[in-house]
Every structure is written in structure tokens, then in C-alpha cells.
Amino acid sequence: MAERRDADAGGLPGEDGxxxxxxxxxxxxxDGAVRRPEDEAGKGVVCAFGKNMKTLRLREGLDREEFGRxxxxxxxxxxxxxxxxxxxxxxxxxxxxxxxxxxxxxSVWKDEVERAQYPGFFQGMAKLEKEAIELLAxxxxxxxxxxxTEEYMRALxxxxxxxxxxxxxxxxxxxxxxxxxxxxxxxxxxxxxVMEESVLRxxxxxxxxxxxxxxxxxxxxxxxxxxxxxxxxxxxxxAGVDGPFTVVTRDDGxxxxxxxxxxxxALETDPKQAALAAARYGIIRSQALTPRESLxxxxxxxxxx
Length: 305
Hints:
alpha+beta
């Protein structure tokens, strides 16, 4: 029998103002494979959507090639959507709904299909990002997903052990890229990123990937609502010794603290803990290079590659 280790992965916390800890739920089967119930539910949603789309396509008398042509995709891509092996974008779902005359029967799936793009342990945080008026992120191991280039994403996802299949990697790359819409949102949220110098020096994927990643950080750092700071290796004190975390302030003023490690996550809503995390982030910022110094540091690092 499968053993339940913990629960409530990725779900948004309660609204009663109390402390709610949300951990990535993990099921471990007899064969040693690790599965999260939310991941399985997400796959079910994608498969159900695909079956509905196929039923509507057949009702309209369209083969996959013709349907794909009207959507701007190949027949094989249509097959991957219908078989639940690939997750369509919200725009593609709306296009399919229109082409098939579904009158909303497909479009109504958009929110559920979008959530299924993300691993179960991250779904709650993905929703919070969409509602954030402020996001503060401290990272110690890799560049924050919101700042990553597509090549850097693929390099990181390709290093996962056990390995992810190619379709899962493609889905997660697409989902991570979609999250970067936060930089173009209006009204613009306030975004602050502090990262350890070591993050900027690790050549994940090779020097060319790192070079492009540093260039992207410099470009994003020019945005008026974004501040990027570097914590140098020579600092003798750092308030970030407990590891990476993100503080999100939602549009209703509520603050949340998110942290993840080894495929599990915690989403903390206790106002006291959120306030302490925000204060700790402020100390980390004061110990790091200023935004101007940080961009100059990254420029020098880029010039040395």
C-alpha cells in the first residue's frame, strides 16, 4: 500500500489569519516511486480535457491534421493534447473552443489546466504570484525561476534525478516562461531579488548558457519596478543562513512566506512569521551590494566569461 507522508501540497492557505503550514504531499509506492497526489490529479485534469477536445473534434468531423492546421499546430501536437501528454496554453484552449464551436465547453477548463502545468508543490505559489503586489526573493542555489532564460531552465530541469521525461520538461519550461508575465503586469508589482554570488558563477548548462542568463538579469534589472542585488562571497555576516525563501504580498495586503527544498514546500500564513520573514529580507538586502553596485558586479562577471 502507498504511505501518505504529508498533505495539502500547494493549496492556498485558509483565510482565518491563523498559521497554516502547507507541505508538499508525497506518496511513496511499494516500487519506491515517489508521487504527489496533486501531480496525479493534475494529470487527470489534462487527460480529461484532452478527451473532451477529441470528442468535440470528432463531432465536427475534423481529423487531427485539419484541426491542427486551423490552430496553427501539427497533427502530432494535437495528438499530444488529446492524449494528455502536453498542456495547451490558455490561448490555444480558447482557439480550440472557437474552431470547434464548443461555446465555452473547452474554455471553462482554462484555470484547471493552467494549474496542472505546475508540480503539485508549487501550485499555491503560482497562484499567489498572479495576485502579488510585492515579491521579495532570496536565492542561494540557482537563479530565481522568474529570472531564468529558457536555456537555463532546460539545463536545470535536465539535471533532475530521477530524470524528468522530455514532455514534462517541455511543460515545466512553458509554465515557467508564462510566469514571467509578472514583469509586464499593470499595475506593476514591486519585485526584489537578492542572490548569492555563487549563484551567478555556477555555469549550469555551460558558459554560453550562463552568459545569456547574466545578460537577462541585467536587462530585467533595468526595469523600474525591479531591484536585483548580489550577496558577495566575502561577506562575514548574512541573515540568509537559513536558506532561500520568498515573501509575497497579495493585493489584499496579506503576506505569505514560501520555501521549498527536495520536492516539498511550505507556505506560511501566520502574520507574525510573515512579518519576521519580511524583516529578515530587509536585513539581507542591507548586507548585500546595492542594486547599482550589483548590476556593475554582474557586468564585470559577464565580461570575464
